[in-house]
Amino acid sequence: MKMKRLFVLGLLVVMAVSAFGFQPVGVHAASPVQIDFWGGWTGPDGDVMRGLVEKFNKEHPGITVNLMTLQWTPLFSKFIIEAKGGNPPDVLAMHPFELGQFASMGVLDAKQVKSVKVKKADYTPNIWQGSFYSKVQYAVPLDFHTHALYYNKELLDKAGVASAPQNLEEFIKAGQKLTIDKNGKNAGEAGFDPNNVIQYGLGMNMNHHAFYQWFALMYQQNEKTFNEKTTRTSFNNNKAAKAWGFLQDLVFKYNIVPKGEKAPFDDFRAGKVAMLIDGPWQLPVLEKSNLKFGVAPYPQIFQKKAVWAAAHILTFPVNKKADASRKAAAVQFVKWLSDNSAEWAKSGNIPSKMSTIAETKKLPGREAFINMMSYAHFLPPLPKAAQVFSSVAPSPILTAAQDTLFNNKKPLDIVAQMKKEMDSILSAP
């Protein structure tokens, strides 16, 4: 009977491991189960993630998580090579718009996601949907991030701007008041000299983040950018031109954004621009500075509130070489990271689990981002996202941004070219 009981007990253990259960893994093993975790956090956010990984390792002596960080583009290039060679990481972080590319390649394991047992009720609908591709959940949500409006409190007070602007009229008016030439005239006054400006009203990135603003402004006009099957663009050219035209006018018509701006965040910290469109990843640096800053939601320029959003999501690459204990350890780590994601807010990213919101709001500047959760929009998970949304030139979105903010081309021509390039990529075999 004793031998029979031992056999049954052993069988139950094997079944639990095979099902990727959450019992402690590797506690009694001769050496810890090793799992590899890859992400693109190469700044201060990487330090926060390393701290979380170290905490997990201390609390789970039977598992050792090895974190590797690279810039996102080389990270994914390395992943594709290692996946083809049969040596992918056990856990891979990415963004929702990249999910379609890798899911369609068949390199992500949806079964392990089910083992984490994430609940829809723990997230807002848009964040939950960001972990799916083609109705299959391939990822566990970790955080989200959007654009917001940073502002220098002292410069706004000095200019008589009572609060951060939140609509089109307020935005232009405040931007002009805060743009001052060498003679002390602002951009809304007669005699203002746009060629000798000592302080601008607004700074913003003129790279792929300009496209992200365009994307938000399309949703503010109730306009989606791609068809349901993501096989072609579907946006109205006039609305698209209106969105690019607004961004262009900030530079060339209203003169409130520096022409050819290269380092808007540095300009904001130095007081060269009074407001800044940027993301929560800048918060840790600003918190350590002496700058008196505030953060407001991204302004509503058109008919409705909308803002671009991205997120970090956690996936499980297909790995035929990994045994059951290694897969179980990866599931256990991802579940732990999700459950303990409030600490991740220190990186500037906003944890996406609703249970973390109250704690995250206590940190400086986070509330504005949290308040936009319900109307934040992710880029769609195109199978060819790496080409369509590439942040490296040449790409449709960078060409459009540069033609808008550097070359001052006609918005309708910019839209026609961008649509042509995107549709060409999406229709290619």
From TrEMBL:
Q: Which domain of life is it from?
A: Bacteria
Q: Which InterPro entries match?
A: SBP (IPR006059)
Q: Which Pfam families match?
A: SBP_bac_1 (PF01547)
Signal listed as a keyword: yes
GO CC entries: ATP-binding cassette (ABC) transporter complex, substrate-binding subunit-containing
Gene3D superfamilies given in the database record: Periplasmic binding protein-like II (3.40.190.10)
Give the keywords, sorted: Signal, Transport
Has keyword Nuclease? no
One Gene Ontology MF term: maltose binding
One GO biological process term is: maltodextrin transmembrane transport
The signal peptide stretch is 1-29
What family classification does the UniProt entry report for this protein?
Answer: Belongs to the bacterial solute-binding protein 1 family.
Q: What is this protein called?
A: Carbohydrate ABC transporter substrate-binding protein (CUT1 family)
